[in-house]
Specification:
Blueprint lengths: L1 E9 L2 H31 L22 H6 L1 H7 L8 H19 L21 E4 L7 E2 L2 E4 L3 E6 L9 E10 L2 E9 L20 E3 L5 E3 L4 E2 L6 H15 L11
């Protein structure tokens, strides 16, 4: 079982500046890796219905994937040493975001629903970064220590539940400040599995109507529930008490 708790961070001015700098660098690298995938996608496909059989096909290039782009982080840190200041797992999680966005565009989710073409991120659309392997040991009293960022004060408006382990930590910048979302997991809680799986045999189709409340596929009708006359009378009496109060008299409760 997994749950998520969000708390407000109280960073110093130096910590706010550093986290904003991390977001800018992660956003730029996210857009660059997305560009690599788009360039490969556009450069390695030829529309069959718009190209004769004798046309020249370009040489196929290696497709950038999650592992190749993750390996590219090593030369990135050599060419741009300031990227060494970002935690390595935070950088790798950025590569994972690129992979998930492109996979949803090409293959769709588990239900086959495809997302739109991934968009490049502006400053207002890349507002979080993730520590994929957080630990309960980071927490000490009302403070939490984030690797390469330092110790932060946290407003613990509710305690962490007992028996849960901290799995991930997501740092988010919102309009009113910075927040941390802790993903908690308790392996002792079993996953919920419904006893009866819905099928065409054990399901009933219902159609809502105007004259009748609903109609089932078996022909059963249900009328709209109307207010009885006694209820209408009491509502009328109450409405008059509140609508026409005497001067200086508080209306009675119905």
């Amino acid at each position: 079982m997994r749950i998520a708790y969000q708390y407000r961070l109280l960073p110093t001015s130096e910590q706010r500046a550093e986290m904003s700098r991390w977001l800018d660098m992660l956003r730029l690298q996210y857009n660059w890796m997305l560009t690599e995938r788009f360039q490969w996608w556009e450069g390695n496909r030829t529309p069959v219905n718009a190209c004769p059989l004798l046309c020249h096909l370009p040489e196929l290039k290696d497709q950038p994937d999650y592992y190749s782009q993750k390996r590219s982080l090593v030369p990135l840190k050599q060419d741009r040493p300031w990227y060494k200041e970002i935690h390595s797992q935070v950088l790798q999680d950025m590569v994972k975001r690129v992979k998930l966005a492109f996979d949803r565009y090409l293959n769709g989710d588990s239900n086959g629903n495809r997302s739109g073409k991934p968009r490049f991120k502006g400053k207002n659309r890349y507002r979080s970064f993730t520590y994929p392997q957080a630990s309960i040991d980071w927490i000490d009293g009302n403070k939490i220590e984030l690797p390469k960022l330092g110790v932060f004060k946290v407003i613990w408006h509710r305690p962490l539940p007992e028996g849960f382990n901290v799995k991930t930590a997501i740092i988010t910048q919102k309009a009113d400040g910075w927040y941390i979302t802790l993903t908690l997991e308790d392996v002792s809680v079993p996953k919920f599995a419904p006893d009866v799986k819905p099928t065409a045999d054990n399901s009933i189709g219902i159609d809502l109507g105007l004259e009748k409340f609903w109609l089932t596929q078996k022909g059963n009708l249900s009328r709209y529930l109307s207010t009885s006359e006694s209820q209408k009378k009491s509502l009328y009496v109450c409405s008059r008490k509140y609508r026409l109060p005497k001067k200086g008299v508080v209306p009675e409760s119905c």
